[in-house]
Amino acid sequence: MDRLAALTIFVRVVDAGSLSAAARSLPSSLTSVSRQISSLEQQFGTQLLLRTTRRLALTDDGRILYDRAKSILGELREVELALSSGRQELSGRVRVSAPTLLGRSVIAPMLVEFLRRHPSVSVDLLLADRAIDMIEENIHVALRVGRLADSPLIARKLGDLQMIVCASPAYLQRCGIPQTPADLARHDCLVFSDAPGVGDWRFTDGATAKSKIAITARLWINSLDALVSAAIEGAGIVRVPFWQVRDELAAGRLQRILEGHEPPPAPVHLLFQSSRLASPKTRAFVDYLVEQWRAIDPFGTRNG
Fold first, then answer.
1. Is 3.40.190.10 the CATH classification of the domain at 163-261?
2. 8 Å CB contact between 63 and 133
3. Which tens digits make up the pLDDT trace of 57-88?
């Protein structure tokens, strides 16, 4: 059995929704397609598809194989492009994921010039404040904030993001200024979350000891922009990236508090597949983002 051909047919069957539709699109005979699927099931010793007279569905094992097979086939196509000679310009799609605020405020404005430079390349930008499975969601480049888990992916560091706690001067005058993280239990806190309830804010004692404070939100919103607006209006204390509220702090609309208890900055990386497998368009996109990030310096690191 040609396992690569069988995987290609398997993915085509799932995408097409039926054996007969896959056979027509290949083109191939229905018998040949069915035989390839049966051979895969025998090879892996498990049922991959549930077949009925009206539809087919993936089993749990079939879903695992489909996700991995689609990634493998995509990587092979990228390798073919990378090794092909005589390419005059980059082409194809680059799928990118980023946290919502960073993606909207920093990454999206950078895309205009990249698209101008490479008119045959398209970019899909997925903004999501959740963990993205790059293989499952077919993401070529991901912007990640925080420590990275061990993985075969390549990481290029862009900068460091400092989380701070702040509130409006009016709120602090009315309710007092907390001196320690534990004092937050007596304050109105505004929490960024997709689910209401309790959030965790991380602090240090100004040296090396770390602490995690459970925060019961008086107001929770799944938008950092909305939380900052509420904080400016005096609704309570908010924990946000420093770069987001730099102008508000300078203008006196917000006041930074608990500065001596702030945790270390969180690294910001671009993640992508190994350069041996990454396509030219992906490498070009990563190089471009690094170049633009250093030029724009969105976190203001050069100015402290």
1. yes
2. no
3. 888 888 888 888 887 877 777 666 655 544 55
